[in-house]
Amino acid sequence: xxxxxxxxxxxxxxxxxEWHQNHIKQMKKCRFDTISVHGIYSMQxxxxxxxxxxxxxxxxxxxxxxxxxxxxxxxLSYQIPTWCYSRIANPTIYYLEGVLALxxxxxxxxEASCVATASGMAAIQTAVDPFLLPDTxxxxxxxxxxxxxxxxxxxxxxxxxxxDQERHIEWRKVVNSNEIDEWESKIDENTRFLYGEMPSNPGxxxxxxxxVINLGEKYGIPVIIDSTVATPALMRPLAMGADIVVQSVSxxxxxxxxxxxxxxxxxxNLRSNIDNPDxxxxxxxxxxxxxxxxNGPNLSPMNSILALNxxxxxxxxxDVQSRSTMTIAKYLSQHKHVEQVDYLGxxxxxxxxxxxxxxxxxxxxxxxxxQKRVNRFGHLMSFNIKGGASATRNVFDGLxxxxxxxxxxxxxxxxxxxxISTHSQQGEEGRKLAQIPPNLIRLCVGAEHPDDIIADxxxxxxxxxxxxxxxxxPEYSAGGSxxxxxxxx
Length: 489
Ligand SMILES: *Cc1c(COP(=O)(O)O)cnc(C)c1O
Known about the structure:
Low-confidence stretches: none
CATH architecture of the largest domain: 3-Layer(aba) Sandwich
CATH superfamily of the largest domain: Type I PLP-dependent aspartate aminotransferase-like (Major domain)
Number of domains: 2
Radius of gyration: 24 Å
Mean pLDDT: 94
Strand order of the largest sheet: 1-7-6-5-4-2-3
CATH class of the largest domain: Alpha Beta
Shape: globular
Bound molecules: pyridoxal-5'-phosphate
CATH topology of the largest domain: Aspartate Aminotransferase, domain 2
Strand content: 5-15%
Largest sheet: 7 strands, mixed
């Protein structure tokens, strides 16, 4: 058999890359909903490679075979598109990465790429670790990063324990993130990045992102934003000049709750004081093909397609859930057993004005129903119960429709007490920093009718009037046949 030669494959790869880039360019012209529905998967690709399958195919295969040794060589040196091994790349994961890159850069000319990971925590590690290398000239030089303290509990632990305590990489804490001077006072020539979560989970901290981006520009360091709570339906930090966005895809994007996933979306040619041109040129490609290849935090193709499928309805879901959350927040605000309601959408919230500057329902001006830009504030809110920790537990235990769980972004309403769940590991001090009191209930509003959520809250709060709620459970599971086993007591 005559060898075709490696050039044969390189030429074919070049033609394909042009075709794909052109297709992505066409998709970039579409509205947000169209991109969410189609992503980067095309009819042409379906007909040529996937038996016409209108839905993105799930490649449940660890690896790919090659036509000959030339193709294998070109593939394994990353010179042609390949998914040699699913820890590194896989077509189904590629479709998820493609749609997220387009959605996070929507409405701008930012060129972004994405690397999907097995969880949001893995995404955070993927996003920050390439910047936390020792100084090449003086490896003994201490390095630091500047990050807000109002963070998801897992992020707090990753920063405080895995980086600061175990690796002696100093976490310089920004406590009042909306005070721009506090950010700037922590930056020096050994600062590797600026990191913030907005709105934060569960505290809904919010800051003037544009000012933090200006600091990143001034000091030549990347700005990394965890935008899980907002999602690209409400805010797209890359378009404003941030360098990297982290998504816990597990949450609002993957609303069905079928799995855990994460993603890093980064602009091409980002800022960094690390001398690594490849990393700066295309951060996600770099992370995917080098550190993540070696560390192995990749997503599974099955979780990719499940997440991808939920993303198709992102904008309309976020709109409905945001509107319901507003209705519920207003209801709770006037309830006699509620001490305080925190929702960025309420005018009484101290960060309402700054949040209103950034949180807009994407494409609302092109929506027949609105025909103008409208603010939406997402599905995350919290409220404090009068009477302390035990009263709070009693109300929480009285919930019947709202699920008691530590979850967020579900299509179903879910509530938790952060002090005893998501933020239990970080101790009293850490909770004080993150402002998590024991009488705080976090509520993530789903897509049920808000009247039914209000009715559930109403009956649960009535325990504080002395009403007894008995949560009974049936003896048998509804799905059981006649041989169902008796529920263990
Ligand atoms: C849940 C969450 C994470 C972590 O994501 P996982 O997918 O659970 O690993 C990070 N940031 C925020 C804001 C989150 O809510």
